[in-house]
Amino acid sequence: MVTPARSAAARSNRTGRRPGGSGTRTDILDAARKLFAERGYAGATIRAIAQEAGVDGALIHHFFVSKEGVFAAAIEETFTPAEMLAPVLDAGVEGMGERLVRTFIDKWEEPTTDQQLLAVLRSAVSNEEAAELLRNFLSQELLGRIVTSLNIDDAELRATLIGAQLVGVAFLRYVLGYGPIAHVETEALVTMLSPTIQRYLTEPLNTADSVASKPEAKARTAARPTKKAVGSGSAPTARDRDGDGRARNARPRDSLGRPLPYGAAGVERLAENPDRTPVESLTEAQRLLDAGRPFEAHEVLEDAWKSSPAAERELWRGMAQLAVGLTHRARGNQAGAVALLTRGAGNLAPFRDAPPHDIDVAGLLAWARQLAGNSAGDADADAEVRPLPRLRTTD
């Protein structure tokens, strides 16, 4: 068994300044995670991170825009959502709870990532800004994507319940080293947690404890389309479906993608269309951005991301993340905006020298980094930054 309580390895002090090279970004992240673990989020300043990494502070702004961007990158590169989600989602609903718990616990007990995770969690419990960045990551990139893939009611509540279980156990086991939970065998821990996580993923929630028990939620439930029970004796948990019979949540949304009560007048939903050509996807996404509908632009770009060739997948993913960043900004969630804009720019950067489909990667990078700095309250950011990106050089 891997011992949960591990002391942080001492890192040799770096001296001098050097220009950014291929390993500089990694060095900055390593230094930041070390300081986040030792000093917490508030104590890990840009200057301190630069000194620890042996680089000029301007390089941190170049790679990450702000300290929020550094922390967001530390979260993503520590949890590696693509790697974590694949084993959880690819095998279907049956046993999903166990796969999620096992993947999460295994991540904590990897010698290469345990100290990184400790840095993230310690920062989040000691600083509200760091906590908000972690919440955004869990809801957008990890747990939120899992429950959304199931197209079930109370998805946000379910993701929150799962997060409470998993993050709570991680905090008690790996940060506090509290009681028997700090020493129980990994396999026993997975066995104990899995049924609860599976219930949160697939079974009806207890209405006595669910948001569905509130009067306003009951009114929404009454306005929903009637659903037939699935299978003999099963609860009425059939999914909403579109006109083609495909599973799709029928709950109306506003122009920024926020759910509205069933029966409310929301914006017209876009039909899923993974068969758009790249130019059609870019044109439609630009139309939606210009109309002030970045959430739906994200959906168009996400369709393209899912159907794109492997060589272009991170490019489309990056553009979808920029649209989500704009959505967060329009909703007033500045920390979420910084995190997604920074993350999207990071995925776009490798395509700068040879962008396909006339995509203005250089312009999008400059726009995203400037807007992220503006959202983070960077005094050097241009207050007149363009609020909307242009996706193609030919537009």
UniProtKB/TrEMBL annotation:
Residues 22-82 form the HTH tetR-type domain. The keyword DNA-binding applies. Pfam families: DUF309, TetR_C_16, TetR_N. InterPro entries: DUF309, Homeodomain-like_sf, HTH_TetR, Tet_transcr_reg_TetR-rel_C_sf, TetR_C_16, TTHA0068_sf. Keywords: DNA-binding. Residues 1-25, 209-280, 375-395 are annotated as: Disordered. Signal peptide: none annotated. It comes from the Bacteria. Residues 238-256, 269-278, 383-395 have a biased composition (Basic and acidic residues). Residues 45-64 bind DNA. This is DUF309 domain-containing protein. The lineage of its organism: Bacteria, Bacillati, Actinomycetota, Actinomycetes, Jatrophihabitantales.
